[in-house]
Amino acid sequence: MAGYAVFAMNIQEILSLLACPACHGDLSLHGEPTQADGLICQNCRLLFPIRDDIPIMLLSEALPLDGDQKKPANS
Ligand SMILES: [Zn+2]
Fold first, then answer.
1. Which of 21, 32, 56, 68 has the fewest CB atoms within 10 Å, i.e. the most exposed one?
2. What is the pLDDT of residue 3?
3. Distance separating alpha carbons of residues 30 and 37, to the nearest angstrom
4. Cα of 33 to ligand 1 centre, how many Å?
5. Does residue 72 lie in a domain region?
6. 60 CA distance to ligand 1 centroid (A)?
7. How is residue 21 annotated by DSSP?
8. Would you state the pLDDT for residue 24?
9. How far is the CA of 27 from the centre of ligand 1 (A)?
């Protein structure tokens, strides 16, 4: 529980400090603030995954948002 609270505070601080490595634009959270699993750059349509509470700010690790959204549901 405490861990979540710390994470929630940290992620907001992280958001204010980090910028997209491609366009240096603002990032937004993907998912709930306490359970975010990625950071999104709306300019680049990229999602940077968060692993073990650490945002992976690498273009090589970023996932394309468009591709993700267009992917058909599991069937
Ligand atoms: Zn960007």
1. 32
2. 56
3. 6
4. 20
5. no
6. 13
7. T
8. 96
9. 8
Q: Which residues fall inside 5 Å of ion ligand 1, going by CB?
A: 20, 22-23, 25, 41, 43-44
Q: What integer pLDDT is reported at residue 31 of this predicted model?
A: 86
pLDDT at residue number 73:
58
User: Is it the case that residue 45 has pLDDT exceeding 90?
Assistant: yes
The reply to whether 6 falls in a domain is yes
Number of domains comprising the chain: 1
Token representation of residue 38: 């990625």
* 7 in any annotated domain: yes
With 60 as the cut, is the pLDDT of residue 37 above it?
Answer: yes
Q: What is the CATH number of the domain that holds 19?
A: 2.20.25.10
Residue type, 36: A
Q: What's the domain range around 37?
A: 2-65
Q: DSSP alpha helices (H): ranges in the chain?
A: 2-17, 65-70
